[in-house]
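Structural prep section.
Before we set up the soaks we want a predicted structure of the protein with zinc ion in place, mainly to decide which crystallisation condition to try first. Input record follows.
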Amino acid sequence: MTGQSKPNRERREVLLRKQIVVRGVVQGVGFRPFVYRLALEEGLTGFVGNDTDGVSIEIEGPEERVEAFLQRLSAEPPPLARIDLVEVHELGACEIAATNATGFQIIASDAKGHVSTGIPADAATCPDCLRELLDPNDRRYRYPFLNCTNCGPRFTITRQIPYDRPQTSMAKFPMCPECQREYDDPANRRFHAQPNACWVCGPRVWLAGPDGVEIATTDAVAACIDRLIAGQIMAIKGIGGFHLSVDATNEAAVMRLRERKHRYGKPLAVMVRDLEAARAICVLTAEEESMMMTSARPIVLARKRDGGGIAEFVAPGIPWLGVFLPYAPLQHMLFADERVRVLVMTSANLSEEPIAIDNDEALRRLGEIADAFLMHDREILQRCDDSVAAVVDGAPQLLRRARGFVPLGVPLHFDAPPMLAVGGHMKNVFALARGRFVYQSQHLGDLENVTGLDFFRESLDHLMRTFEIEPQAVVHDLHPGYLSTQWAKEWAAERKLPLIAVQHHHAHIAGCMAEHGLMGTVIGLALDGTGYGTDGKIWGGEVLLSRLDSFERFAHLEYVPMPGGDAAIKEPWRMAFAHLRTAGFDVESAASLSGANEQEARVLDRMMERGVNAPLTSSLGRLFDAVAAIVLNRRVVDYEAQAAIELEGIAIDETDRLSGTGYVPELWASGSCADAVPDGSSIIRTSSMWQAILNDLKSGMSTKRIAARFHSGISEGFIWAVANAREKTGITRVVLSGGCMANRRLAQLLREGLEEEGFEVFQHRSVSPGDGGLSYGQIAVATAMLNKLDGKMN
Ligand SMILES: [Zn+2]
Ligand SMILES: [Zn+2]
Ligand SMILES: [Zn+2]
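Run finished without errors. Recording the tokens verbatim:
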């Protein structure tokens, strides 16, 4: 036991000495001062310091005090900390001389060796800082960059590890004596708060015209507010990039923003002062409210409230609104003015380009859009969009993992070798893995253009440095045409690294399996937009018998041509035409029902007939497009999945599940119709649904009911296919994944229906079900293939 070397016999009996190692997100989040305060409160002696794996502590004191300390250590961590592991070791002898005399100390960092704690995520302004911001007597009253160890920017201002001020964009602002004193005082909330600053020493904010010339003001933020109230479009520099902002209650201002951005349909996110203001424009559930209040402050997709006063053009044609709360002091200052109620806050970019971060870059790219700029001189070093979350089927789901979540690791239930997975093509997110964690990049957007690929490279460099991960393998999607695939091949060749290709929907299912620690075989429902299949066709309505390292295709939606390839994704009328022709409608009927003119119909028909630029697809997303084109007359889309989102949206008030009345596709089981199932999998045949849909339309049934019946029928069809798979295999665990799982109605119908049939159902939680989650699944598959993990674990 302890204290063998001590001369005092009495003390030896009562004092324990322990070494404690804490792992997780414990650096740069005020963990050491927290331990320091805890030790003082419990009357313990010893020390605490950062080491390469987290925080290392030694404490000495009476048994009950030591126990109380250990209990509180896990129960009361600072707000931004995340404890993954606490290891306690008994110590025989005390290593610091006369600890009782010197009390408890915070000792200098040990920065040698391998660093696994990385950089914390950016966190919203904490209540203490907010109070100071709004207190006229505080020295930081209305200072737009105040922060402390419990809040502030982290990931976005850090160039490289270790996370220390010289490695951040705060390096150029030497602290004034008062800030330095706070920074050095372990009892202060700003002890080692790397971005600590004040009016005297920190960054400043100013107003500039589209020409970049500073506009003289006495108070730049107040001037910005005046302009917003007057209906102007402001570019406002934030934490992870610029936002474009207008008054969301001003119809003309919102329309002008859309005209200048040339984007008419894509919903715009809005920011409000607080939860109460959010409730005035949205109907919020308790889960949605708590999601909005997390320190990541994601945009939450919630039900729009009628009469909330939001301009029609903010989110046209859908019943949801992306709403979020201020997370930077500058944003809180905008809402401190009573006149400001709801602001559009949309990522400042042109179409799908990465968000602008640099002052000059912003002027260059947004000069034609914004009337003026609210600039500041704290450099943003890592681009990071706002995260997007939703409550789907009663549970929180992260649809876009970015600010506030990156670069926190997502746990794995097995060890992964150091590797890189490059993700997909649209909504790209790559992932680096090591050990029990996968570090996903921020949402990078579409890799279609050079800027997208530059963003990919710049973010990869940064995360590789941050986590000191040197990949030993590179994982990519099976699609040979993806830019990410081509890039992966070149990068791996340069480094002589092994390459692993993973089928798109296998990655979706494996990602959800890995999130839940599932081993063995599951039935995977991968319901998606598009992904390249092993037969070279475009998959997306798949029932897979999936293990982590391999899969078998059990059933899929019937193949239909995509006339024009990618053009069919942007123009749903093409999919409607293709579906109707496949279902046996003649050219004239298919044309008139899908809204194609005579010439369009002729061209499309020829493409499909000759198989020229008309790849076959089994995508559920494309089926949604086809139905929306006919039922809602949605000929073209302005943003990804718009048609499907509108079809889901219109059915929102149809609470009846419509069991038995949906348009149920036919299931052609393997073997029952040999010519239809060349690869041995069953076909879920949608052709038969069309006549029923058209009959309902003709009879004057409401479009919302038709949309609801479509959701019910398609879920029933998939549930039948899953039940069929169980009959053949005895497997009862079902994993739901793919972009369509963001559809709340579909997710709920499938989960409820499957549970009624006695299945155990698993859905994504911290990884996106869409292509943003792909890289996590790619890591899971590649690790299993390399380790033959399934074999080992079964
Ligand atoms: Zn704070
Ligand atoms: Zn200062
Ligand atoms: Zn996908």
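Observations: The radius of gyration is 28 Å.
Flagged for discussion at group meeting.
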